[in-house]
Structure prediction request, 177 residues.
Amino acid sequence: MRNKKIPTSAFDDLEPQASHRMRFENRIEKELHQQPFNWKWLAAAASIAILISVGYVQWNDLDQKNTAQTDSNHEEFPLKQAENYYENSFTLQLDVIANAYKGAESKQMLKGSLELISDLQKEYKILEQDLKNTGDQRVATAMILNYKSRIEILEKLLEQLEYVNQLKNQRDEKISA
Prediction:
């Protein structure tokens, strides 16, 4: 039928073949339900891949710097661990005390203790410089003792604050009784 020439006037009364109509309907149906390509997913995946790559490079670079620093400061590492331990203990105790005791007397006692601690911190800075200059292990021991002294000041402050608080509670109980 394709090779036959059909006069143009004959098109008006000819019907397409049934299979043609089915193919045409299937094709239209397929195109109507076809989802367009979603570039957002591809962009998100590319962004994640870039972030992971940059993170890996940064992590690797930081790890190499830490390894080089650890190698050069191998002897200072135990001192740094001790320093971090005492600094964390000191900060934790100071926070607990400051949050637990907020009265005027407590603040005055805390102020006095903080002045002593400030003096010890100044001494610590001097010891730190001496350690850098001399590398003497006795200076490192003095630095650790400095931290212990600061923590002991806080422990004594805590004992005094608790004692004052007990006295107040006893006085309040006597007054209300």
User: Anything to note?
Assistant: The first helix runs from residue 18 to 33. Residues 77-176 form one domain.
